[in-house]
Specification:
Elements lengths: L3 E2 L15 E2 L5 E3 L8 H7 L5 E2 L8 H10 L9 H20 L5 H18 L1 H10 L5 H17 L6 H13 L8 H6 L6 H20 L5 H9 L20 H16 L10 H9 L7 H11 L7 E4 L3 E8 L6 E9 L4 E8 L8 E4 L10 H4 L4
Antiparallel strand pairs: 1-4, 2-3, 5-6, 5-9, 6-7, 7-8
Length: about 375
């Protein structure tokens, strides 16, 4: 494979990449068309001794897994879990700018979008792991980040332009701004919704669009995705009760991500739904016109998404860390202990393709173990 070492001046802040960028071990870092929003991100890319090439040789499944698991990771390099925490802080600050109707908020949102895209490119499995492991974190500020990650993963399997994908993720980040005043209250509420709350929820998409317009945001893809993302194929959604053929593709992707994140997240009035159950339920929402969206979504998460707890044939409890490829159900997991609540001091890598470590089922303990994702994904 012909490759050219990337020069430090060949990546320009806020300019779409003219080619895909790979790390020294062949791992894809950024796709063609991606936008890097800061010099800090560029510096992190060059820690991987990047190169670019005209034609990419597609590695085998075994090579992909080996590259992901064996790639050296050190504390000074990008840590997805730390980055996601920073993203939630940045989003909190963005909500304050939105409340002030800051005319520059659009640029700030797009910068966050491109950083999320870069992080997903860097380690998809760790990003998915964060979504499924961080079940006790501040929901209001993390949910938009999770939805953006899932939208990026799903949209990446279809032929959308980089600009359109950025608009989709921007809609994901801002999809709940019409409810910011009451969202924490709704998440912690154990009683049925009042009629006033139902009306506020129904009006939230239109309110969000008006807020963004007040911030001088006129991106039609962004706004259309935002106002339609709570519509449902059977016409039961809101605000207009549209049926499948009238709902935009991006609104369907965002609606799917929103539904899934809501289902796997714990609420005051219910426990979190298991990932497999949530995937089955969201697939039931599909229609003939959009089945590919749901198939791509499930394909990206895998049968056992990273971050889910499973039991192994060995009698151990493990955390899924890497998805399988092709016909493989799962490629790698980290054993953390046994089903009796006895946990190891350090997680142990398990090859679930081996019969003795075969995955048997999802594990759903009453008390969730306190897990360190840095150890599970070797970011220590």
């Amino acid at each position: 494979m012909k490759r050219t070492k990337l020069g430090i001046n060949e990546i320009i802040v806020d300019k779409p990449l003219e080619w895909s960028i790979y790390g020294a071990n062949g791992q894809l870092l950024l796709r063609q068309g991606s936008v890097v929003s800061s010099q800090e991100i560029i510096n992190k890319i060059f820690q991987h001794e990047p190169f670019r090439n005209v034609e990419r040789i597609i590695p085998t499944t075994a090579q992909i897994i080996e590259q992901r698991i064996a790639a050296p990771r050190t504390p000074e390099k990008l840590n997805p879990f730390n980055e996601i925490t920073r993203f939630s802080t940045r989003f909190r600050n963005l909500t304050k700018d939105i409340e002030k109707r800051d005319s520059n908020v659009s640029k700030k949102i797009i910068r966050l979008v491109t950083d999320i895209q870069a992080l997903v490119e860097f380690d998809e499995d760790a990003c998915l792991g964060a979504i499924h492991l961080y079940y006790d974190q501040t929901y209001t500020m993390l949910q938009p980040i999770y939805k953006a990650i899932l939208c990026e993963l799903t949209a990446s399997l279809q032929d959308f332009s980089p600009e359109a994908r950025r608009s989709l993720l921007a809609a994901a980040l801002t999809s709940n701004i019409g409810l910011l005043d009451i969202q924490d209250q709704l998440n912690n509420q154990t009683t049925p919704l009042t009629e006033q709350q139902r009306q506020e929820i129904h009006n939230a998409p239109a309110k969000a669009v008006e807020i963004l317009k007040d911030c001088h945001i006129s991106d039609t893809v962004w706004l259309k995705t935002l106002i339609e993302n709570h519509e449902r194929n059977d016409g039961s959604g809101y605000p207009w009760g549209l049926k499948s053929k009238y709902i935009s593709t991006f609104a369907k992707i965002l609606g799917l991500a929103d539904t899934y994140v809501a289902m796997i997240s714990k609420r005051a009035y219910r426990e979190a739904v298991l990932a497999q159950t949530a995937l089955k339920e969201v697939y039931k929402m599909s229609s003939a016109e959009d089945e590919v969206i749901y198939v791509n979504f499930i394909r990206q998460l895998g049968v056992y998404p990273p971050g889910t707890l499973v039991t192994l044939k060995s009698g151990e409890v493990a955390v899924v860390t890497y998805r399988g490829f092709g016909n493989s159900i799962m490629s790698s997991a980290m054993s953390i202990g046994n089903t009796k609540g006895q946990y190891y001091a350090s997680p142990q890598k398990r090859d679930t393709s081996l019969e003795r470590f075969k995955v048997e089922d999802l594990f759903n303990p009453k008390t969730k173990p306190n897990l360190n994702p840095d150890l599970l994904w070797s970011y220590t």
